[in-house]
Amino acid sequence: MTLSGKRQDLLSTLRSRTGHWVSGEELSGELGISRAAISKHISAIKGLGYAISSAPGKGYLLTEAPDLLLAEEILFGLGTSVMGKNGIVHHHLTDSTNTRARELARDGAPEGTLVVAESQSAGRGRKGRSWLARPGEGLLFSLVLRPDMDPSRAALITLMTAVSVAEALIRETGIDARIKWPNDILVGGRKLAGILTEMSMELDAVDYVITGLGLNVNTPTEAFSPDIRDIATSVMAESSAPFSRVALLQAILSSFETHYHTLATQGPESILTRWKELSDIVGRRVRVSMMREEIEGRVTDIDADGVLLVTTDAGEALRILSGDVTYLDPSGH
């Protein structure tokens, strides 16, 4: 269940006065509905997990909001114009937010439509790898985008998303988030988040793009299985404190919208510059594993389409659109 109309207005009023009593008469006057309707809407809001006290002569008191990625929580204080403002679909459990977002996009969902989940049963990373999360610990979401861009430049969406996420994490949590080409966010060499971008084309034009994020937020170190404990991490593990998933999502959406607008109006130059600042891949020796081959060489640059440029040990210059990168000189250039 989600809220709309007067019910959403009522929750917004209570949220703006959290910790303070608001009389039924005052709410009735502000919202233009009866005291009986107020009581009915309060019951529905409680059904979402909000703790609301009521007392004769005092009215209503919102004391606690649920630790859920509800539309009502995301929208409260969200400073975007498009991202998250054109529809939010919340799932307690789904197979994959990218799958759900793709279905919405096929049905004509507008740009900025947001799909969030508390947990996933079949979350996917690149090459179909799984991304699973326990309820309430991760930030799992996908956005519907309808960019006016050539399909050959779609890789820029992934790079732009990585910059948006890394900057939001640095700003909100203070952790040293870094980008690993093409779609990972690392801290201290351990994976914190993964990005999955999928595109649908009509003829030679982009119909829609789905960009999805799986971010470990409040996962304790001991919750990671032993086989990934040395290569995975979370915001809480790095900062020794839990963080509001809603606040992080709002920060990421705001950062994303800013960079998305820049990409559309000014081109990719500033985004690519920032990406290189947040990644240390340029100049490093790497092994790139692709579908049919594996190459070793030195990264010379990221081009204007977001493609990795590598010069092999044999001197061959290659453009790598997709692959798994392993650093061969982890201590530096």
Automatic annotation (TrEMBL):
Record's protein name: Bifunctional ligase/repressor BirA
Binding site for biotin: 96-98, 120, 124-126, 191
Record gene name: birA
This protein's UniProt keywords: ATP-binding, Biotin, DNA-binding, Ligase, Nucleotide-binding, Repressor, Transcription, Transcription regulation
EC top class, as a word: ligase
Gene Ontology MF term list: ATP binding; biotin--[biotin carboxyl-carrier protein] ligase activity; DNA binding
Family note: Belongs to the biotin--protein ligase family.
Keyword Nucleotide-binding carried by entry: yes
Enzyme Commission number, as recorded: 6.3.4.15
Record-annotated BPL/LPL catalytic domain positions: 72-264
Gene Ontology terms describing biological process: regulation of DNA-templated transcription
Residues of the DNA-binding region: 24-43
PROSITE patterns documented for this protein: BPL_LPL_CATALYTIC
An example Gene Ontology CC term for this record: cytoplasm
Organism from which the protein derives: Desulfoluna butyratoxydans
